[in-house]
Amino acid sequence: MPSPTREKSSHPDSGAQELRTTRLWESIPGLSYGGDYNPEQWSKDIHVEDIELMQQAGVNALSVGIFSWSWLEPFEGQYDFDWLDEIMDNLASAGIKVALATATAAPPAWLVHKHPEILPVTAEGIVLGPGSRRHYSPSSSVYRRYAAGITRTLAERYKDHPALALWHVDNELGCHVSEFHGPEDTAAFRAWLGRRYGTIEALNAAWGTAFWSQRYGSFEEVRTPGPAPSTLNPTQQLDFARFSSWALIDFYSMLVSVIREVTPDIPATTNFMATSATKALDYFNWAKHMDVVANDHYLVAADPERHIELAFSADLTRGIASGKPWMLMEHSTSAVNWQPRNTPKLPGEMQRNSLAHVSRGADAVMFFQWRQSRAGSEKFHSAMVPHGGTNTRIWREVVDLGAALQAMSPVQGSLVESRTAIIFDYESWWASELDSHPSADVKYLDLLRAFHRALFLRGITADFVHPSANLDGYDLILACTLYSVNDADAANIAAAATRGATVLVTYFSGIVDENDAVRLGGYPGAFRDLLGINVEEFHPLPEGGAASVDAGWSGRIWSEHVHLAGAEALASFTEYPLEGVPALTRNATGAGSAWYLATFPDAEALDGIVETLLEESGVAAPAVAASGVELTRRRAADGTGYLFAVNHGTSDAAVAASGRDLISGTPFAGVLAAGAVAVIAEA
């Protein structure tokens, strides 16, 4: 029986990708600065003013034409490029480079009217209509034909334009709707399954269809997962999540193949939504198809620790980009339009946000959008030029940020330093949160965010990496809630410990294989030997319940019956029926160690565990600073270190560092003002 393989769309070889990426960064010296530009919303006199203001702000890069299909092709086969020609020419004359969009993120009304079959269908059979955006299925043969047509027309027209630096393919693929259940989607799912498994017998084995008489006689009998009398086959759900991510990759790759035929040397990307809230797309798989990784990020205004969530998302984006520089394609100057209460950013917060992204690997700082719209759903979404014009705090901060980014040009191309890795796997996220599990309270991101927060507060930068990534160079590795893992990836993590790393594995890790089949012989199956333990039974805690631990702390959400099989117990549960059962263990293995955590510790205990792990692994912050200061370091190819210090507090803070502050242009004096940022070229 053939083993299933991970579906991959064709993509350019890495050498060609590297050349295109190099060309992109060479075309925009220094850090890129700008945003989405939607000139079709404005008159020509505003266009002239825009160029003047862009130069005042230091803008050198813009995304253009993202939602302009109905203006470029107002009627089928009838094109109007005069306005875009003028815009492209004006931007080129001003020295501003363009990420030109394929304009496919919102089908025009005439196309929907002629071909309503392109519209997405939900699992309940509801057709999602126009009047918004993203109203198409990526598997629609009709839509793919029309999308390829407008993309080719744009590529042919602007292939030699001096402003063109990057193709912005579609926009936020998977946003609003990420799963599709129409007839062509079902057919595409069946074809994908056929390629993945080869035979229906292999699918039946992987899906465990002996349960509940679910055995299939052919791929034609398989449907997309939808409403059913009870819970659905978990592996069917998992495979549909894999397929749904792939279907959007395949649509992206189709558009890129058109672009490649016309402009083989121009790099291409699309803007991810790699945040702690975006679950549907496997961005580690997507990254293989990008010439440069680009991401959108928006703060949750109500979150008092929103700067820590920003760091989480930026670190995740850098991990997806394999540590290479990436683009912040969208964020906001102030309030957004889609949260329940759209409060503005505080004075100076926009610069702190922007430079925090740069500190974590971004070589481009872009906003949605350049000029705040007068009409439409996003008219109250902040922009670089707000409704109030240039006599506003936002505009003054936009100009100041442009000057800071220009002063920070030497940072471009440098890489973020990190000796700590947090394992991140979208497929494990999907699988761990399927139904019929031991506890509804186990959420994939909760432990990851808790450990990342504890590291952040100590000035420790962590890379989020796929479990298959090269783990050499990491001294501390955290595998949290890695519920689903294949043999090779489990061995990769174990090898890191043998090499000398300190590895921590948490509860509900290594439980199933890549097909969501339980690994028999005791939990956590994939990591039993590494950890020197065997878990007999899960004891999930009741809602709001706690499990006391003899080290003076308590756990929540989870506990379990752990047996030692070579490891030593560092802390144990104290209450019936788990009295004396290990809650935290350590196993020496090779030159390193493997720790196991059998509950979700309270905040103080988790901090203490992190402190102990840091001491054992030898990982330390890049500098000593007062509480409230965010620290990261980027290092250039010539060895120069750039220490970023961001003071999120309301008081001046000491930072033990020396060198020239690129932003002020003066030697760093060792004290960072409240709310300020320093980028120190270390002596």
UniProtKB/TrEMBL annotation:
Biological processes annotated in GO: galactose metabolic process
InterPro entries: Beta_galactosidase_C, Beta_galactosidase_Trimer, Class_I_gatase-like, GH, Glyco_hydro_42, Glyco_hydro_42_N, Glyco_hydro_b
Domain Glycoside hydrolase family 42 N-terminal: 36-407
Catalysed reaction, written as an equation: Hydrolysis of terminal non-reducing beta-D-galactose residues in beta-D-galactosides
Entry GO terms, CC: beta-galactosidase complex
Gene3D superfamilies found in the cross-reference section: 3.40.50.880, Glycosidases (3.20.20.80), Golgi alpha-mannosidase II (2.60.40.1180)
Identification of the protein by name: Beta-galactosidase
Protein family membership: Belongs to the glycosyl hydrolase 42 family.
PANTHER family, A to Z: BETA-GALACTOSIDASE GANA
Domain Beta-galactosidase C-terminal: 628-680
Superkingdom to which the source organism belongs: Bacteria
Keyword terms of this UniProt record: Glycosidase, Hydrolase
GO function term, MF aspect, one: beta-galactosidase activity
Active site (catalytic residues): E172, E330
Binding residues for substrate: R133, N171, W338
Enzyme Commission code: 3.2.1.23
Residue ranges annotated for the Beta-galactosidase trimerisation domain, each copy included: 419-619
